[in-house]
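re: ur question from yesterday

yeah so i grabbed the chain u mentioned. its 271 aa long if i counted rite. heres the sequnce exactly as i have it in my notes:
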Amino acid sequence: MDNNTLAIYIHELRNHCMHVQTSFDLFNQAMVNQASGGVLYGGQMVLTSVSQVAALLWPTRARARSRGEALRKSLQLTEKHPLNDRRLSELSERADEKFEEWVAATKNAQVVFDFVGDPRTIHESVKENSIYRAYHPETNIFYYRGIAYNLKGMAQALSDVAVKINALYRQLFPEHAKAEDEAIRKRQAEIAKAQAADADTKAEDKKAESASDTPSAKKAPAKKPATKKTADKKATTTKKTATKKAPAKKATDKTPAKKKTTTAKKAPAKK
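ran it thru and got these structure tokens back, copy pasting raw so excuse formatting
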């Protein structure tokens, strides 16, 4: 296989690995949100993208085996691998016919469509080959057309392949890889800046909220001046009382003055 052809295949394999990651992100988000539709859709998208990787690297058709061997050699992958599963690599082949065959094979049987949970909780007679599409969270098994696939094991198997695909991609497309790295750094910087701005905004809001609560906290001490005013009032009252008493003393002083006047008038009377 020439370098140009190899580059095209590696580019497409890398795309499928990215599709798997996106599908797993959707799947995990749906699991968190308990959205059964998203869980089933994400799981099937994972299965579809992984099957494309398996078909390119471990093809089942005789005329494509040389291509698979060349790609595996470039990626240093062995023939024996968890993704080398004929059921997986042929997932998309004859899809309509396989569905028709499944319908015929499960006639008069208890079947399960689009279910998240243990399929056997629907009915104890449910068998694996009668489950069309379902996901069992406790076992990480995704059922499709009567076949069970372990999503956790699939993710681990693909992770090893993806690392090798990305490494070869960087060798074949150094400029693209450099531009992508720069775009990722820029994006991460934007995210960090946005997070910092959000943190600052929250800090300002918290500070403003704290400031608005401060007057309320100082209302209790504000009562102390009122106590002082009361004391002042008492002092003022005391002074006023003292002032009122003072004239009373003056009245006492006037009495002798009158007596003196009377005595002065009596003196001429004796003459």
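noticed a couple things. Residues 227-271 have pLDDT under 50 and may be disordered. also The CA atoms of residues 228 and 264 lie 55 Å apart.
anyway ttyl
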